[in-house]
Write a structure and sequence with these properties.
This protein is mainly alpha-helical. The protein has a single domain, classed as Globins (Globin-like, Orthogonal Bundle). 75% of the residues lie in helices and 0% in strands. The chain contains seven helices and no strands. α1 runs antiparallel to α4, α4 packs antiparallel against α5 and α6 runs antiparallel to α7. The radius of gyration is 15 Å and the shape is globular. Keywords: Heme, Iron, Metal-binding, Oxygen transport, Transport. One of its GO terms (molecular function) is superoxide dismutase activity. InterPro entries: Globin (IPR000971), Globin-like_sf (IPR009050), Globin/Proto (IPR012292), Globin_lamprey/hagfish (IPR013314). Pfam families: Globin.
């Protein structure tokens, strides 16, 4: 049985939408992070090596920002591949959530911020339909992450 609220058709269209943006994982991941750091500067405080960077240009060129952008996109890609298998999906989301809650102590609202920026970028690049078909996936991811945070006492 699946804890996921996505139908098979929704899973397929979400995967199609994600593939478009994942083709350029490093560039698009970097764009998402740079936007987050620029529009929500408090999020930079979690990344000691990004703290001193003020210009978007400087961030875009940073190997650390690029590396983390790619990492974020790889993690989401992993989740997207397992949307039709809730056990496998949770096997990816759970350790990630625990690590961010306990070791990194990242405020869970930042997951929503990053997901919203991904949706925004999808809409800009590929249109509203692309964004719409991925929206449920981001809700799913954020819901599960928030549940893990609650279990960890947030």
């Amino acid at each position: 049985s699946s804890t996921m609220s996505l139908s098979e058709a929704e899973v397929q269209s979400a995967r199609g939408a994600w593939e478009k943006i994942y083709v350029d994982a490093e560039d698009n991941g970097t764009t998402v992070l740079v936007r987050m750091f620029t529009e929500h500067p408090d999020t930079k405080s979690y990344f000691t090596h990004f703290k001193g960077m003020d210009s978007a240009e400087e961030m875009k060129e940073s190997d650390q920002v690029r590396g983390h952008g790619k990492k974020v996109f790889s993690a989401i890609n992993n989740m997207v591949q397992h949307l039709d298998n809730s056990e496998a999906f949770l096997g990816i989301v759970t350790p990630l959530g625990k690590k961010h809650a306990t070791q990194l102590k990242i405020d869970p609202k930042n997951f929503r911020i990053i997901c919203d920026i991904i949706l925004q970028l999808m809409e800009e690049k590929f249109g509203g339909e692309c964004k719409a078909s991925f929206e449920k996936v981001t809700n799913e991811i954020c819901t599960h992450l928030n549940n893990i945070y609650k279990e960890e006492g947030w």
